[in-house]
Amino acid sequence: EENFCIEWLRGELKAKEEANAELKAKVAEVEKESARREREMDILRQSLRIMTTRCSSNRQFM
Question: Coiled-coil intervals in this record (predicted)?
């Protein structure tokens, strides 16, 4: 019976370690996607600044 408990606990430990590894992989994926979206937002902000600057400089010459 003691061996059964030990084997059962080892199985539980292995399952939890696998679940932990899967969760860490998902977290890494979400962080990567978040960084990609942040870069896209930065590019959009820069583009908006450029367009706003060009628009305001064109108005000065009218």
Answer: 6-47
Task: Tokens 């962080």: give the residue.
Answer: 31
Structure tokens at 53: 């600057």
User: If you ran DSSP here, which 8-state letter would residue 62 be given?
Assistant: -
pTM summary value: 0.66
What is the C-alpha separation between 39 and 41, in angstroms, rounded?
Answer: 5
Residue-wise pLDDT tens for the chain (62 aa)?
889 999 999 999 999 999 999 999 999 999 999 999 999 999 999 999 999 988 887 776 65
Residue 50 domain boundaries? 1-62
Identity of residue 38? E
